[in-house]
């Protein structure tokens, strides 16, 4: 396939303006975003994205999980489309670029195709995957997971948030239940542009991460049950302190992850303590242990040691403990041809690059199970993400979107 000319570039100012415009929707309290999935802010962001796509001459399709697909026709209607996509939903203390750069970088690629009058054989489709973050409705990458046949739609619709609201009801409430059967679409390939969310590219002064693999993820929800009692009058030997049990288990989680250094991580980001009253010994603690590693055997060892260790700790303390696997996926190897298209694009465009393993999970990790898929990463300041202070430079956004543009063009085959 003819490679695009190295002079074909996106319009970085227009991309940056769109990123800043989208960032006004669902603002956080510290300069980032709180545009959680299926909230009114999510609905507002979806509507703006749809408007921009239609302004760029694209037609919008939506499936029954609310996944959005904007299509730019190709010259061969029978050719499977080349997809580019990511997610517009954010963490509660999210940044302006996590997910959004991948969706709006794809839109910028299409806008640039329009400016340059480029026609491709394969149609081009931009995807916005519903609920990538999994923060309001666990697990992460929920809707790309249903699309890839990992989860059933019924199971996904029944996922509840902290207020007991169901995913399916909230999707209906914001008016984004589409009419397309989820997973019916077939893809020629998919590319996802994403910020690294880690420190490597910035530290090594590389413009581009060529993502060859994604590390695996394991989410285990742990419920420790003790007994509420008075923090003042209950003698120490009589206490059944679920909070203390949680603390000892979290210490164990850290120890397990460190024991597999440098290729493993572990922590709990979600923690609920009950009744969370200053003068009541906690009777219950519910928290989600997040283990990750590029190595499946390591993940399995960490899960096993958590289960054994948590039971031992709770037995010794007279506490009950339950563990439930609430999310996860095995380590991912992306499609070699798509990865080469990314690497060749970076070379052609003169961007410095290095192969990298994704530390975070992405929709691409599930879509890789149903279509040839690869990811492109750009640096982020101090490797910080899932924090409102998340920041990138316009040059990094430009490099990532340029590489996405070229990888998609080469794979979709330029006709004129
Ligand atoms: O959890 C993840 O890795 C992704 O940010 N949802
Ligand atoms: Mn993301
Ligand atoms: Mn994220």
TrEMBL record:
Q: Which residues hold Zn(2+) 1?
A: 87, 98, 194
Binding, Zn(2+) 2: 98, 133, 386
Cofactor list: Zn(2+)
Q: Which residues are in the Peptidase M20 dimerisation domain?
A: 215-314
Give the Gene Ontology MF terms in alphabetical order: hydrolase activity, acting on carbon-nitrogen (but not peptide) bonds, in linear amidines; metal ion binding
Q: Which family does it belong to?
A: Belongs to the peptidase M20 family.
UniProt-recorded name of the protein: Amidase, hydantoinase/carbamoylase family protein
Keywords, ordered alphabetically? Hydrolase, Metal-binding, Zinc
The UniProt record lists the keyword Zinc: yes
Instruction: Output the NCBIfam families linked to this UniProt entry.
Output: hydantase (TIGR01879), PRK09290.1-3 (NF006769)
Query: InterPro entries annotated for this entry?
Result: Amidase_Cbmase, Bact_exopeptidase_dim_dom, Peptidase_M20, Peptidase_M20_dimer
**Upper classification of the organism:** Bacteria, Pseudomonadati, Pseudomonadota, Alphaproteobacteria, Rhodobacterales
Q: Is Hydrolase among the key words of this record?
A: yes
Q: How is the cofactor bound?
A: Binds 2 Zn(2+) ions per subunit.
């Amino acid at each position: 396939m003819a490679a695009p000319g190295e002079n074909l570039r996106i319009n970085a100012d227009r991309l940056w303006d769109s990123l800043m415009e989208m960032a006004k929707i669902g603002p956080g309290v510290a300069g980032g975003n709180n545009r959680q999935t299926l909230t009114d802010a999510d609905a507002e962001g979806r509507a703006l994205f749809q408007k921009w796509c239609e302004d760029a001459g694209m037609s919008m399709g939506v499936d029954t999980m609310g996944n959005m697909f904007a299509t730019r026709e190709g010259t061969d209607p029978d050719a499977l489309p080349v997809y580019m996509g990511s997610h517009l939903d954010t963490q509660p203390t999210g940044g302006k670029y996590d997910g959004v750069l991948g969706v709006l970088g794809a839109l910028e690629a299409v806008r640039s195709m329009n400016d340059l009058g480029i026609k491709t054989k394969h149609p081009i489709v931009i995807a916005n995957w519903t609920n990538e973050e999994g923060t309001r409705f666990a697990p992460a990458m929920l809707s790309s997971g249903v699309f890839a046949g990992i989860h059933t739609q019924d199971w996904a619709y029944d996922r509840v948030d902290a207020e007991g609201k169901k995913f399916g009801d909230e999707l209906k409430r914001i008016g984004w239940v589409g009419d397309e059967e989820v997973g019916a679409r077939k893809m020629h390939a998919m590319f996802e542009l994403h910020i690294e969310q880690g420190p490597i590219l910035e530290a090594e002064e590389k413009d581009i991460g060529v993502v060859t693999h994604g590390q695996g993820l394991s989410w285990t929800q742990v419920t420790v049950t003790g007994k509420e009692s008075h923090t003042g009058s209950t003698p120490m030997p009589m206490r059944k302190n679920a909070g203390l049990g949680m603390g000892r288990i979290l210490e164990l989680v850290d120890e397990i992850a460190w024991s597999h250094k440098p290729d493993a991580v572990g922590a709990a980001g979600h923690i609920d303590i009950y009744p969370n009253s200053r003068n009541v010994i906690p009777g219950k603690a519910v928290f989600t242990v997040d283990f990750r590693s590029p190595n499946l055997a390591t993940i399995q060892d960490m899960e096993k040691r958590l289960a054994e260790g948590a039971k031992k700790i709770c037995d010794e303390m007279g506490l009950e403990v339950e563990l439930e696997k609430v999310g996860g996926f095995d380590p991912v190897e992306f499609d070699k041809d798509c990865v080469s298209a990314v690497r060749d694009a970076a070379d052609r465009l003169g961007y410095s690059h290095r192969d990298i393993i994704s530390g975070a999970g992405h929709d691409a990790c599930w879509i890789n199970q149903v279509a040839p898929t690869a990811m492109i990463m750009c640096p982020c300041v101090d490797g910080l993400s899932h924090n409102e202070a998340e920041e990138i430079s316009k040059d990094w956004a430009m490099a990532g979107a340029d590489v996405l543009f070229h990888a998609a063009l080469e794979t979709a085959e330029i006709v004129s």
